[in-house]
Amino acid sequence: MNNTKIWYLGWALIIVGAVFAGVQAMKEDGLKIEWRRVAMDGHRTGAQPVTADNIPQALGTFTDEGYMCPSGACYMDDSPVAQEAAELLEVQPQLAHLKKVIGHSAGMYMNLRNQPDLPLGNLVADILRAYGSRYFKVPMDFAITNYGGIRTPMPAGAVTLEDIGSMFPFKNYLCYAQLRGSSLTTLLEQLAGTKAFQAVSGCKVRTKGGKLVSALVGGEPIDPSRLYNVTTIDFLLDGGDKLNIGALAEKVVLTHVLLKDVMLDYVYATEAAGKEIVAASDGRVIMED
Questions:
Q1: Are residues 154 and 223 in the same domain?
Q2: CB atoms within 10 A of CB 37
Q3: Do the bridges between strand 142-145 and strand 227-233 make them parallel or antiparallel, or are there none, so unpaired?
Q4: What are phi and psi of 21, to 5 degrees?
Q5: Helix%, strand%, coil% for the chain, nearest 5
Q6: Contact (Cβ atoms closer than 8 angstroms) between residue 255 and residue 237
Q7: DSSP state, 137?
């Protein structure tokens, strides 16, 4: 066997060994995958987020000289940058309706799931409760949705149809649950034992050490025997995020209204009124160690 073959064989054994060791590690510890959000990087080209009306300004154009970036730099047609730009520009006509600006936000509101009393969660829960009151024609005392169902932040400035679709990509449907006060307290106790509590509206809650310390609904202590009207989503009725609101409820009414459509209704109405989308923390949930 010559030296070249020995060299190749040695490297083959090293690679096989590394793969075997990796497989064994995954078997022992389990496969670990970490997701993280990466900001758009357009420093080379000046590319910006796209709306229905700014495609040439946001992504650039092709001229006889090649791909002309928004920054003014030019790349030959066969360059990797130009080829990627061509693919992006080709699909824009099909995506144009999603890029339509439908509202404006006063700021960027993040979805930090491990923080209670989050502005974005408060906003969504408040919108859900208000919509539920109109839709079911009874005043809603309380609303709850899950932070995991809000997948992206609310952007600052122009808000497009695509932004709302990205925020609420799941088929989570509006529903109405009627809970006895004692069961509502049980639900709040379950939430108190979690890290994030979930997004709620209509209440003011304090927890300490994973235990419920105090809870007000509509500014009043919870009456154990009273029936409370609750707006939520079907995902939380039977095991979603380890909650079983359906099992606690005296009555449940399901709908075919998506949470995304509830949010769109609010965005359209806010824009029509000439207002911006505004969210804030207000102390509705205080969690102490």
A1: yes
A2: 7
A3: parallel
A4: -65, -40
A5: 40, 25, 35
A6: no
A7: T
CATH label of the domain that carries residue 267 = 3.90.780.10
DSSP 239-279: TGGG--HHHHEEEEEEEEEEHHHHHHHHHHHHHHTT--B--
Among the candidates 99, 133, 163, a domain finishes at 99
Residue range of the domain that includes 95: 55-99
Whether residue 114 is found in the same domain as residue 87: no
> Are residues 93 and 116 both part of a single domain?
no
Contact between 133 and 112 (Cβ < 8 Å): no
Does 85 lie in the same domain as 160?
Answer: no
Count, in order, helices (H) and strands (E) of the chain: 8, 14
Distance separating the N- and C-terminal Cα atoms of the chain? 68
Q: What is the pLDDT along the chain (289 residues), one digit of tens a residue?
A: 544 444 444 444 444 454 444 445 445 555 555 545 445 456 667 787 777 778 888 888 898 889 988 888 899 988 988 888 888 888 888 777 888 999 999 999 998 877 888 999 999 999 999 999 999 999 999 999 999 999 999 999 999 999 999 999 999 999 999 999 999 999 999 999 987 799 999 999 999 999 999 999 999 999 999 999 999 999 999 988 889 999 999 999 999 999 999 999 999 999 999 999 999 999 999 999 8
| Number of compact structural domains in the chain | 2
Whether residue 195 is found in the same domain as residue 88: no
